[in-house]
From TrEMBL:
One of its GO terms (cellular component) is membrane. It comes from Momordica charantia. Residues 1-19 form the signal peptide. This is Sulfotransferase. Its main location: membrane. It holds the Pfam family Sulfotransfer_1. Belongs to the sulfotransferase 1 family.
Amino acid sequence: MDPTTKLTLFLIFFRIACASTVENNFGHCERVVKNWASSSLHQGVNKDKHTLQDLLFFLHVPRTGGRSYYHCFLKKLYPSSQECPRSYDKLRFDPSKSKCRLLATHDDYSMMQKLPKERTSVVTIVRNPVDRVLSSYEFSVEVAARFLVHPNLASATKMSKTVRAKTKGVSTLDIWPWKYLVPWMRGDLFARRDARRQKGLSEVKSNSPYDMEDILMPLHEFIDEPIAHEIIHNGATFQIAGLTNNSYLAESHEIRHCVQEHKSLGQHVLHVAKKRLDDMLYVGLTAEHKESAAMFANVVGAQVISQLKDANFSMDTLADNQSGNSSLHLDSELENNVDQNNNTLDEKATLRKEVETKRENMTATELIEVYEGCISSLLKTQSRRRFASLKKISPANFSKEARRHVSEEVLQQIRTLNYLDLELFKHAQKIFTTRHLQLMGNLDMKDGSESKFDQPRAIELWKTLSLVMLCILLLVLFLFAHARRRVSKVKV
């Protein structure tokens, strides 16, 4: 057999072997993903999804506006003593902790393995995938840029470790996914700064902050990086399905990579994520800000307030729980009004009691007013901090206007990479629209029931209007008939 024939046969056998391996790999992945999906869909959930249960789990999808909900809704509703110690970096609390009623975290849905499912209500917010990816890129750059005050990367890394070791609270660098994205982006910013200094560059070629490669990683490079494929793309679907790289499920890594390798298997993950959205107490939309806030206040807030009234918490228990939980902070109202050094314990207890009474007597309408005032202040603070951070990478400056200059090619690539999140977002929109219409209908019925004392007057008014309309109708008919008779006479 001549060498050419041997090579040809070898290539044929090699292709057959490769095809067989790929087929076997797909078959294995299909079994793993389907088994997980089937098991997930049959897990017991709370049958009454419209009623707030004992524990509220706020599944915070990054860059959806969840921070404003946490500070301006949840912190206004729940006493600090009822908030579970934060769990941004794996489970840090005992679910059986007395009075633990609120868990707000970036941890994914697999957290439910640690929670009493039948006594837990889940809420979340979903955002257009393109906007979420852009925002994730911007926030990674913004936080990483804060470290550029240091002379080099080694100094910045050492400082961040020292600060985190001394701080009892939770740093951004402790929180998923920023604990992966920020250090990675920080290293990239320092590398580009060092390269500019070596070249003696002082001018930036591009006018778009998303394409200033001399200063920061361009957006088109960011979305193609392995870490973006692992964490950012289809992030909402994987988080709601419970399959992030921060998951409690042992098989999550294999399932996630099977889906990344075999795109068609993503439909099984999407189906699970959709079902979980269906079963949630509340699903908000970032873009529908006003309507989402109103729905949260009336669906979630009203039930929390009702629970607080029914529970009748003792102030002694609140004080004991607060003193035993040093990692938590006081409510913002207390932070603004209590001088920790000068006030006596009695004064603090009195003020705390006033805050708790105010919280229990709050209505959904008042809650929305509190939220609007709070978010206005929060956005101003965030804007100032963002401006200070981005000054370190000037002239790069992210804005809504700058986003309009991102090329359609890059935007289309983001859509393609986030095909699961696009479908999940459409499903979330349907849920939101349906529930918003239901809420409006319920509120209209409620308003109607509250004005029953006006019914007799309304009935009399309706009778009068009906009589007037009848008289007008008879008059019109009489005039019409009279006019026809006159026309008939003229014809004759």
